[in-house]
Design brief:
about 200 residues; mainly alpha; Jann2411-like fold; two-stranded antiparallel sheet; 6 strands; globular; ABATE_dom_sf
Length: about 200
């Protein structure tokens, strides 16, 4: 897994924040184009409603998603630092949810009344509302206190460890780098054998 690939499998809000990894010492935006946003939504298929995934994002859909990502990261990092989250970030997440609230649409399927949540409005606002709702779920969950930043000095990825000893965002990304670095360090300092 390279730094330019999206890290998925964490709570949706953390997966969103993790779309800004560090590569070659600089932050990279994995949601910088409508195509990248569509690809990321496809990776999140089990957590993003089909009606949102069925539409093709355009340039105007990026700004609301980026804003939710910035607000989410600001709140998460403040909580990790043990400080009060920025009021503007909390307000921004609330406003994003308000822009496209879910409405339970009732339909008759031939045998029973069914209800499915749908959001109205522009695609970017609907995606942003969904992601802001996921952020609200994470931020209010007691598990938020367990979120960690990757132990690799060059990595900014966040994760919710399933095991208390987990240190890296991914065993194939940063975990492997740490193992290789330790191996190199041990063998670099070992005396050369005379042959």
């Amino acid at each position: 897994m390279s730094d330019s690939e999206a890290l998925t499998g964490e709570p949706l809000a953390l997966d969103l924040v993790n779309t800004r990894p560090v590569e070659d010492g600089a932050r990279k935006d994995l949601l910088g184009t409508p195509h990248q946003l569509a690809a990321w939504l496809a990776l999140q298929a089990d957590r993003v409603p089909r009606d949102i995934r069925a539409e093709t994002p355009d340039g105007s859909d990026l700004a609301p998603v980026h804003a939710v990502r910035e607000h989410t990261e600001a709140v998460v990092r403040a909580l990790l630092d043990g400080t009060a989250p920025p009021e503007s970030a909390l307000r921004g997440l609330t406003e994003a949810q308000r822009a496209a609230p879910p409405v339970r649409e009732l339909t008759w399927d031939g045998t029973a009344v069914t209800a499915a949540a749908h959001r109205a409005g522009p695609l970017g606002a609907r995606i942003a509302a969904l992601l802001a709702e996921a952020a609200a779920d994470l931020l209010t969950d007691p598990a938020m206190s367990k979120v960690k930043e990757c132990a690799s000095g060059e990595c900014v990825m966040l994760f919710l460890p399933s095991h208390p000893r987990r240190r890296w965002c991914s065993p194939t990304r940063c975990g492997n780098r740490a193992r290789v670095a330790r191996y190199y360090q041990r063998h670099k300092t070992a005396p050369a054998a005379d042959g």
